[in-house]
Amino acid sequence: MLKKRCIFFIVVSLTLIFIGCNDKKGNVEPEVSKAKFSMEETLILDENSKSFYTIDNHKLKAKELAITDEEILCFNKDTLVTAINSKNGEDIILYKGNKVYKTSFIGELEYFNFNKEASKAIYKLKSKDDEYEYGILDLLTSKTSKIDMDIAISGNLIEFINDSNLIFYGASKTEKVSGIYRYNIETKEVNLIKGINNGFITYIKPISEECFIYLLSNFNDEKVTFKYNINNSKEYIVSKDITKIKDILEYKDQIFMIGSLKNNLFSLYGIKDNKVNRLVYDFPRGISDDSNIIQVNERIVFEGYDKNQEKNNLFEYNLLDKSTNIISNNDGKYRIIKKSDKY
């Protein structure tokens, strides 16, 4: 079961019947549903009320989704990807247009991430024998391809940087070289992007098709955040003050991050010209530990709370006037669901 699972129930009139269970083998023909999914730019879930919302004119607007018993993993304009527990493991369900595709996994899915089109996914599967498998799932055909190479991937530090390539942090099993690698899912070619021999990486995330951010911790417990460009192999230091990153994005000429600095203060920060500025102070009093961030027009949206993380709200930081406003009407347990084509 994917970690931090939130199973929710929605009463709907639409019944979807799925055919076939491929145990990660062969094709599954799509079943045609009676409804067509059309998604906006944003999707918010209140885990307490099991309600969905979009952001409309700086307020939450109710969104109806014809799904049952499933956790939403990602979405884009005509696609929704969900997960649900099954008898022997987990089912991944793709709603695309008016068609439904299902892939069944035997074992526990510990990690799942998508390309921009939400047509392919990287997965990490734990078997009943406590063995791990990394692979690529084609969500439209239900075909899987195991990532088999001489490099051990470190935990969940693997991401799509574009539709054909993954970046990951790992170590060669034969040459004893640690570093950041690129894996082409079509040719299965592996290339070392950057060797890491003076510490280890605790965070890595693409912010565009050319660049990614990574957080390096050296053996003296010093932490440095870098931005790396894979086209010209150049990198520069973003900050030496960041100790933890929960989520990060780049908008225009600035990087925005939810995380911690050396003072251990977990908050929303803006980073420009190697300077890290705290953007949120007493309103809200705290940032939710699991908060994602998204950029909506000239605003950064995040999850915050006053007293209790179980009763949080949705906030937006205005990049123009530097103000913070609440955009949810009531306390809830709001979760920002990331759009697959947004870094």
Automatic annotation (TrEMBL):
Origin: domain of life: Bacteria
PROSITE patterns linked: PROKAR_LIPOPROTEIN
Name the record gives this protein: Lipoprotein
